[in-house]
Design goal:
Length: 399
């Protein structure tokens, strides 16, 4: 085992071993949801009500709670984040045959949602500070476009640039105000993939803390089992636009016109509703959300201290001017190297610490081999240098 591998294992252990969870005779997972009596109580209440499906009291409660946390005017609960992002793109005007600019360093759903909306992802680079979409790369991609009859066209593909979809990587806010300003210059809507960033805020230009997912025209947050708050499977579409908020609800609930018995639908729409059963689970999680957020941040602080003097790698702190939920804590190698990264990960796994790399770059996934892609040198370096650490909130016990 190399010195750096030994160091990495020891430093992670020094943090996680302060908690009961980190000392159990089993591997330490990347992220575990905390499910106990409160979740059972709410889910049982839901079962007893028999409203287990697409209507029920927990759904509007969950939507209201998310509005309160994020400050978004509208929150519409859906069955998962991927379909939420698809609808968020559709609401922003993305149509069949369009192109949507996305970061290549992201989870597959960022690109798949674009495909499901009928469009083609156009992959661009990330920047080091936030690990998210690079404003400079965005500007370069937009400046390379031409305007034909008022429509912004990528001359390489002939397709309309219909939206820009930045993502808040591992919960760390992307440079969203800068991205929105560039997008506005070129008159292209921003659809935020805020899947990972419930509880992450940016100090905006007015000096106020503003939640991620409330800067773009529309956005999505995921409640998948590995997120800071889970509904089992689920997500929410956010928007501050009243008409889009109304349409988000209408389109994700089969576009049925309200009537006591008639089945009249005014559009071809989706059944993407979050079941009440999932919302019940989510409400218990949201009751615990302030503690989860505090624990994630406390764990990050402890990792930050533990890695302060390690030569060869550093802990990834929240970008300046932001408050991250530290959904997944991460370390970054000074010298990007897939070989070194994998050697370190192997040592951690051998020691029962289930660390994880970043996702494979999206432009390299076989389905997207022919999609437009810019210079992605920084994303390539980040992919070869980041390792995500065990980040279950309960690991902060005893810190
Ligand atoms: C960046 C990103 N986008 C989209 C998604 C999709 O969310 P879901 O799994 O709820 O469909 C996820 C997480 O799963 C994600 O991490």
């Amino acid at each position: 085992m190399s010195d750096l591998s030994r160091e990495l294992v020891e430093r992670i252990r020094s943090v996680v071993s302060k908690s009961e969870l980190g000392n159990e005779p089993r591997p330490v997972n990347l992220h575990e949801p905390e499910i106990d009596e409160l979740e059972k109580k709410y889910v049982l209440e839901c079962l007893d009500s028999t409203f287990v499906s697409s209507v029920g009291a927990f759904i509007p409660q969950l939507e209201e709670r998310i509005q309160n946390i994020t400050g978004a005017k509208h929150a519409v609960a859906v069955s998962n984040g991927t379909v939420g992002l698809q609808v968020a793109l559709f609401l922003a005007g993305v149509e069949y045959g369009d192109e949507v600019i996305v970061p290549t360093l992201s989870f597959i759903a960022t690109a798949n949602a674009v495909s499901h909306a009928g469009a083609v992802p156009h992959f661009i680079d990330s920047e080091l500070g936030s690990m998210g979409m690079s404003p400079a790369a965005l500007r370069a991609a937009l400046e390379a476009c031409v305007r034909e009859n008022g429509v912004l066209i990528n001359p390489e593909t002939g397709r309309r640039i219909a939206a820009i979809s930045p993502m808040h990587t591992l919960g760390h806010p992307v440079k969203i105000e800068e991205i929105c300003a560039i997008a506005a210059e070129f008159d292209v809507p921003v659809v935020e993939d805020a899947a990972e960033s419930l509880g992450s805020f940016v100090t905006n230009s007015a000096g106020d803390l503003q939640h991620t997912g409330t800067f773009g025209l529309t956005s999505m947050i995921s409640f998948n089992g590995n997120k800071i708050v889970t509904t089992g499977g689920g997500g929410v579409i956010l928007t501050n636009d009243d008409e889009l908020g109304r349409r988000a609800k209408h389109l994700t609930t089969t576009a049925k016109l309200p009537h006591k018995w008639e089945f009249e639908h005014d559009e071809i729409a989706w059944n993407y509703r979050m079941p009440n059963l999932n919302a019940a689970l989510g409400m218990a999680q949201l009751d615990k959300y302030p503690r989860f957020l505090e624990q994630k941040r406390r764990l990050a602080l402890a990792y930050g201290e533990a890695f302060a003097d390690v030569e060869g790698l550093k802990f990834v702190f929240e970008p300046e001017g932001t408050m991250s939920n530290y959904w997944l804590c991460a370390v970054q190698l000074d010298e990007p190297s897939l070989e070194k990264r994998d050697e370190l990960m192997q040592a951690c796994h051998d020691a029962g610490l289930l660390v994880r790399p970043m996702w494979n770059l999206l432009h390299k996934q076989r389905m997207y081999a022919g999609a437009p892609v810019g210079d992605v040198a920084t994303a390539t370096a980040l992919h070869a240098s980041l390792i995500c650490l065990p980040s279950t909130p309960r690991l902060a016990q005893g810190l």
